[in-house]
C-alpha cells in the first residue's frame, strides 16, 4: 500500500499535529497510559525500572516499500527494537514513538501502521508512553522507536574469550522472501540465555553472519566456523536457486534473520547446555564454531575450521555506501 | 554551512556505517562510555536511575538551514531535549543519538555537529550511551535524540486546578532573531520549581503561549491573562517593527522561547514564592494570570482578564499543516 496521497483531505496534514497525536493515542488504546502521564507531555514517565534502551527506525523506501502492508511495517518497527532487547538478555518495558512523515501521508495508512505496532505491543506487554511528531522534508515516512527494558545482568556484544564456542538460534538466510517481516524477536530465548550464566557475548543477526559475527570476537581473535553446521533456512535454498550463489552465501550476507548469535564460555558443557535448551525450546540451537587465535596477522576474522582459510561470502549488509 | 556535498570522498558514504560510528565515538570523547557498553551494542545500558524520557529531532530545512552552523544545530538537538526534562522538573542523565542522513552528508559537517552537541553534553553532564545510524531517502539530514532523566516527583502538564496562578520565566517572543539557538534549557529553574512543592503543572514554551498555555488548563477551564504583565523580549519588539504586528503577537505566536510556564497552587503565597525565587535566580519570573472558569461554553481558552474577551494572536506554531 502506497503511504502518500495527493488528496489533501485524506492526508495527515488535514488534521494537524495535536489531532494526529490524539488519534494515535486512541488507536493505541490500552497500550498507552492515561493522563496526566503518557503521550503529549514534555517527557514520558517510565512505568517500570529500566536499565536498557535502544533506538531503531523503519524508513519508507529503505526498510519497506509499497508491497508491504502498513500493519507489517508498524509491527516490524517494534519487533526490530525488541530483538535488540533480546540480544542483551532483557525484558522489554516502555517505548517512545517518533514519527517523521511528510504532510501528505495517508491517514488510513498511518492508522493501520499504528494498528500493526499495537498488536505487537499488546503481545509483548510494551507500553507506548510518549514520543514526537515532526514534519519530514519532501515526501517521506520515517518512524523511530526507542525501547526501554531491564536485564539483571545485560549481555554485551563484546564479552567472549578465546576458546568460547559460537552458537546461533533458528536458521539463517533468504529473509527477503518474507522472514524480515514474519519473525518473532527471541525475547524468551535471550532471557533464558542470560539467566544461564555461561553466555558472555550476544548479538541479534541483522546484517548477516559476515558482518555480525566479528562483533562477538575479542580483539585479535578469529572465529573458526564449521560450515557444514551453519543452519540454513528453506529461504536460503530458495534464494540460491535464483541468485547463482550457494545457500551459505545468503546466511552470511542477507541479514535481517533476527536470530541470536552468542558465545558460550569455554568452561561450559556444550552437551548439557544443548539438552537444557531442548527441554525449554523447540527452536533449533546450533554450535557453529569456536573463538580462536591465529599466529599470522590478518584482517580476516571468520575462517573455515577445516581449511583455516578466510570465509568470503560478501560483507553483510553495508549501510551508507555511496553507490556509483 | 551547507550539509551536503557532491564530492564523494568528502561524504559519510565514503567511510560506511561502522567507521562513522567509530568516528562519532571519538568525536564525543569523554561524553560516551567505554566498551563493553556504550555506542555500538544492541542496547545502551543506562548509567543512572531514570524515570523520565523524551525524544525530539532537528531536521535540515525545518529546524535549521544553511545559515546555521553545524555546531549550533548539534547543540540545539540536545538543548531542546534538555528543555523537556526541565519542564518536568527533572535532572538529565543519558541520551541516545539516532542519525538519519543521506550518504552525501559532509564528513566535516557532521564532525562539527557532534562537536556542538558534545559541548552541551559536557556542560550538563549528559552521556551519549548509544543510538543508531540509518540512511535517509533523497537528500536529507534528520537527527533524533532520546534523553533520559530523573525527577523525584515529575510535574506533568496537566496537574493545575482552577484558582491556580500562571507564571512564566524569562521574556518571550521573536526567537527567530537568534534565541532559538542561543538559549539555555531551564534545568536548574525547573528542578527548583519541582522541589518547591506548590507547582502542579508545567510546560516549556516551544510553540508560543497561544498553543502551549492551554495545555496547562484543566478541562473546561480558561486562563485569564493580564496582557500588561506578559514579559516581552527585546526581540519581540524588534520583530514587531518589521511584522506590523504588536509585540504581544510574537509572544503568543512565535514559539521556541524555551522558557518555562507553570501553574502555582491557589493556596501558595505568590509574594513569598517570588521572593524565594529572587533569592535564587536573576532570571525574571512573572505572574501573567490565573486559571478560572466561565459560565458560557466556548472554544476560547485564553481570555483578557480586563475585558474577558478571547485573546487572538494566531494559534502558535502549527506543525503538519498542508500549505495551499
TrEMBL record, chains A, B:
Residues bound to Mg(2+) 5 = 207
Q: Which GO terms describe its biological process?
A: thiamine biosynthetic process; thiamine diphosphate biosynthetic process
Pfam families tied to this protein: AIRS
Q: Which UniProt keywords apply?
A: ATP-binding, Kinase, Magnesium, Metal-binding, Nucleotide-binding, Thiamine biosynthesis, Transferase
Which parts of the sequence bind ATP?
131-132, 157, 206
Q: What is its EC number?
A: 2.7.4.16
Q: Gene3D superfamilies annotated for this entry?
A: PurM-like C-terminal domain (3.90.650.10), PurM-like, N-terminal domain (3.30.1330.10)
| A GO molecular-function annotation | ATP binding
Q: Which residues bind Mg(2+) 4?
A: 42, 84
SUPFAM superfamilies with a match to the protein in the record: PurM C-terminal domain-like, PurM N-terminal domain-like
InterPro entries tied to this protein:
PurM-like_C_sf (IPR036676), PurM-like_N (IPR016188), PurM-like_N_sf (IPR036921), ThiL-like (IPR006283)
Kindly list the positions annotated as binding substrate. 63, 256, 317
Q: Which residues form a coiled coil?
A: none
Give the free-text miscellaneous remark of the entry.
Reaction mechanism of ThiL seems to utilize a direct, inline transfer of the gamma-phosphate of ATP to TMP rather than a phosphorylated enzyme intermediate.
Q: Which family does the record claim for this protein? A: Belongs to the thiamine-monophosphate kinase family.
Q: What does this protein do?
A: Catalyzes the ATP-dependent phosphorylation of thiamine-monophosphate (TMP) to form thiamine-pyrophosphate (TPP), the active form of vitamin B1.
In its UniProt entry, what is this protein called? Thiamine-monophosphate kinase
Q: Please tell me the species this chain comes from.
A: Rubellicoccus peritrichatus
Amino acid at each position: 500500500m502506497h503511504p502518500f496521497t495527493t488528496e489533501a483531505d485524506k492526508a495527515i496534514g488535514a488534521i494537524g499535529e495535536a489531532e494526529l497525536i490524539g488519534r494515535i493515542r486512541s488507536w493505541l488504546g490500552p497500550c498507552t497510559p492515561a493522563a496526566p502521564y503518557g503521550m503529549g507531555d514534555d517527557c514520558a514517565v517510565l512505568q517500570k525500572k529500566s536499565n536498557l534502551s535502544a533506538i531503531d527506525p523503519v524508513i519508507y523506501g529503505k526498510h519497506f516499500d509499497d508491497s508491504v502492508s502498513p500493519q507489517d511495517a508498524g509491527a516490524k518497527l517494534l519487533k526490530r527494537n525488541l530483538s535488540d532487547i533480546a540480544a542483551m538478555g532483557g525484558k522489554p518495558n516502555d517505548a517512545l514513538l517518533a514519527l517523521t512523515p511528510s504532510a501528505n501521508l495517508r491517514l488510513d495508512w498511518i492508522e493501520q501502521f499504528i494498528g500493526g505496532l499495537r498488536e505487537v505491543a499488546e503481545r509483548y506487554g510494551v507500553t507506548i508512553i510518549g514520543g514526537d511528531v515532526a514534519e519530514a522534508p519532501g515526501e517521506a515516512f520515517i518512524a523511530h522507536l526507542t525501547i526501554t527494558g531491564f536485564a539483571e545482568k545485560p549481555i554485551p556484544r563484546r564479552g567472549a574469550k578465546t576458546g568460547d564456542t559460537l552458537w546461533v538460534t533458528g536458521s539463517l538466510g533468504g529473509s527477503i522472501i518474507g522472514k524480515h517481516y514474519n519473525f518473532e524477536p527471541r525475547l524468551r530465548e535471550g532471557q533464558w540465555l542470560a539467566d544461564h550464566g555461561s553466555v558472555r557475548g550476544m548479538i541479534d543477526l541483522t546484517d548477516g553472519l559476515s558482518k555480525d559475527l566479528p562483533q562477538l570476537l575479542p580483539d585479535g581473535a578469529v572465529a573458526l566456523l564449521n560450515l557444514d553446521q551453519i543452519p540454513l533456512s528453506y529461504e536460503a535454498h530458495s534464494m540460491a536457486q535464483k541468485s547463482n550463489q550457494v545457500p551459505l552465501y545468503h546466511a552470511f550476507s542477507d541479514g535481517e534473520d533476527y536470530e541470536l548469535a552468542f558465545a558460550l564460555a569455554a568452561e561450559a558443557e556444550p552437551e548439557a547446555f544443548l539438552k537444557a535448551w531442548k527441554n525449554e525450546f523447540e527452536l533449533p540451537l546450533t554450535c557453529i564454531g569456536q573463538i580462536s587465535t591465529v599466529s599470522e596477522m590478518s584482517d580476516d576474522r571468520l575462517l573455515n575450521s577445516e581449511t583455516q582459510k578466510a570465509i568470503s561470502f560478501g560483507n553483510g549488509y553495508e549501510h551508507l555506501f555511496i553507490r556509483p
